[in-house]
Specification:
By secondary structure, the chain is of the alpha/beta class. It has three domains: about 10-70, no CATH class; about 75-220, 2-Layer Sandwich (Nucleotidyltransferase, domain 5); about 225-310, no CATH class. Helix content is about 50%, strand content about 15%. The chain has 13 helices and seven strands. It has a seven-stranded mixed beta sheet, with helices on both faces. β4 and β5 form a beta hairpin. It is extended and about 80 Å long. The termini are far apart. This is MULE transposase domain-containing protein.
Length: about 325
Amino acid sequence: MKDSGNPVTVREWLDKRVMDGFDSKAIKAMLRMSAEELSEIKTDSEALPYSIRISAMDIYNAVRRKAMIDTILAPTIGESLQLLMERLKDKGWSTLFEPTPGEGDRNGFTLAFCSPWQHKLIAEYGDIVCLDSMHNTCHGENKEKIFLNTVLTRDRVTGRGIPLAFMLTNLESHFPLEHYLKWLRRECNFEPSTLMIDCSDTEALGINKAFSDHPISILYCYWHLWQAWEKNITSKISFKNMRCKEDRAELLKDLRTHLSNLLRGETPDAFDKEWEFFQAEYGDQKMWLKYMAEEWIQVKEGWARAWRMHAHLWD
């Protein structure tokens, strides 16, 4: 077994399979040897068949070379993105790649795109949508962090999420989101009645500015809501005069039950009664009540079931 490196012909074969659209799983299936072929390999063989010597890393490198050819279109990231947006636009996509209004001093940019099939789905499913933000997706030209924002909805047939449009930006402020949503309204007739977000004041500000002339309901994601509550329960609930571990656990259990009742009251009257009870029951928890009153009761329409019965698709 003297030979070790894969020759140029093997690399070219891998590149051709990737260019033809075969993924890693399909290529591995092509390389799989039968039991008869494997039995012919002896310990004193001069060389291994190339198919058995191709590793997962070889396939990964071939896929990466294809991705670099498709995406790196110019020496700089900015020029490459501009060319990519032009290519997409020529294929019927709606695209945006501009400096972010209001963020010129920080070299902010907004990059957004929506395919033709997504454009059609906006008209069909764009009334109740979710805004999902992902931090630190990649790095920009100056090594800054890049944020990905996706508008998605739920397919009423399959029940699965469907992305309707994407936005990338290098700044975490309301300005890119406002610019992105205004562009969607202008280019894709995006006029939702309800938008769900993950409890972000920045996102809420961007939405309200983008739809200042259009009534829109902003809802908070329950998962992020409970995450915020749990974080503050541990820092704001006082266990004064509670030395017993079981008593502390019982207090937290009851608190979560009453929070759930507050959350799921089906009418405004039911919510108000539960909030009155909540204040009386936890009157000695001043920090917690102040937190709830200032942070959440003022925006109860965004999370309490009594005001979001129409949003059953996401609850």
